[in-house]
Amino acid sequence: MPMETAARAPNVTLDLRPVGYILGLVLTALGVIMLAPLLLDLAVDSGNWRAFLESAGITALFGATTALACRSGHDANDGFSVREAFLLTTGIWVFSPVFGALPFMIGAPQADFTNAYFEAVSGITTTGSSVFPGLDHLPPGVLLWRGILNWLGGLGIAFVAMIFLPVMRVGGMQFFRTEGFDTMGKVLPRATDIAGRLLIFYVALTLACIVTYAAFGMTLFDAVVNAFATIATGGFSTSDASFGKYAGPAEYAGSLFMILSALPYIRFVQMMGGSHRPLLRDPQVRTFLRWLGGSVAIVVIYRLMTSNDGIEPIIRQSLFNITSIFTGTGFGTANVERWGPFAVVVSFAVGLIGGCSSSSSGAFSVFRTQILLLAIRAQIQKVHSPSRMAVIRYDGRVVDDEVLNPLIMYLTGYIVTIMVLSILVTLTGVDLESALMAIWTSIGNIGYVFGEATARTGTMVDFDTTAKWLMILAMLMGRLGMVAVFVLLLPRFWRA
């Protein structure tokens, strides 16, 4: 996916053709990729392959037609304006699930548009919440397609986080852009250089995860789908039991790969260029590992004090499930609610924070949380010593108002959106706890479910249509950043 962004000043008039061209290419590629589950269903003699054939044809045809119709606008431009970057990122995440949902409607499980779109959005945003119970009985092509949606979404999110968001100044992410396409350190001259190295790393990490899972006893099919979901921190598994189908030593392997996938991908790109120090010295990485280790430790201690389970199962389950929630993966091997209210509170807190920026992990991010804590400390110092100049520094660099103000706005939007959408979900007849947890898991792209409304199936299927659309909105807003969505609602954005 070409990623030359913000190479020129904003146009006087908004030209949608460059956006349509790239979006068309993305949809064409999506249609071609649908051939993978098609071939799998053919191989196992499942009649569901026809659904993928029809879906692939519709998607590829629409995408190719759109790209051809908009090609003249793309050829006339040498990059994207900031407005076009907003439209492109939003368009990909809104329209790709429309076509990604087609196999779910045309074939198994014969879902209506709301449920099919919910599942596709959850997959592409790497949220991992589902409205499909009975996964063990679905055709393998459908399960593979869910995993592919996760994997593609995680890769796309990494591109956007490293290339688009710094340009768009969303949520303080411009801190990672000082000139051209430099991202937290070593400058790469073009976005395509970042994209190429990122793709190599992403594929290599996925292959390593597949081999490891297979070594721990998974079938090749389960290893592939679970690896897709792990590396994307997406959480779509092949069974209603989620990762619990392989509970045991495999949980340690899953924890390791979830942690790796929640680290800043740009650091691994730099490692591929021969520079290992940035990863080891990154304050975001150190803080994430420290907070994760502390969260797991206090949950383990709490469970040792309140449970009769053995030490090893407690350590293993706590490590896997807290890591899954912290990284926003959404896999589960145990019911955290049964561990007690303290464990649920810890899970809620780490889910709000999420993994590192420039990864596929969602939620608020470790980087933004660090900056906010530094800002709070600076304000406390000013109250204590009004004449003191409290300068906020992160990784040796001054954090100025250009970074801090969008971040504060992002936090405000994040909290207000959770509150408003949770209240709206309760108006559909859902209890408050289930409503709050549904929006928490959706806007944070976490995937882990809590509450009475999900207790029957472990999915979101029992929520009504309105509640599901509110969760869809939360998933998209959480993945794109609230500001990126709000900007599109401003009339001034569309005026010349």
TrEMBL record:
Look up the coiled coil feature and give its residue ranges: none
Keyword annotations from UniProtKB, A to Z? Cell inner membrane, Cell membrane, Ion transport, Membrane, Potassium, Potassium transport, Transmembrane, Transmembrane helix, Transport
Chief localization class? membrane
What is one Pfam family matched by this protein?
A: TrkH
Intracellular or extracellular location(s):
Cell inner membrane; Cell membrane
**Taxonomy, superkingdom:** Bacteria
Its transmembrane ranges are: 21-40, 52-73, 85-106, 148-167, 194-214, 250-268, 288-306, 342-367, 407-427, 469-490
Q: Does the keyword Transmembrane apply?
A: yes
State the annotated membrane topology for this chain: Multi-pass membrane protein
Family from the record: Belongs to the TrkH potassium transport family.
Described function: Low-affinity potassium transport system. Interacts with Trk system potassium uptake protein TrkA.
* Protein name listed in UniProt: Trk system potassium uptake protein
Origin species, per record, is Acidimangrovimonas pyrenivorans
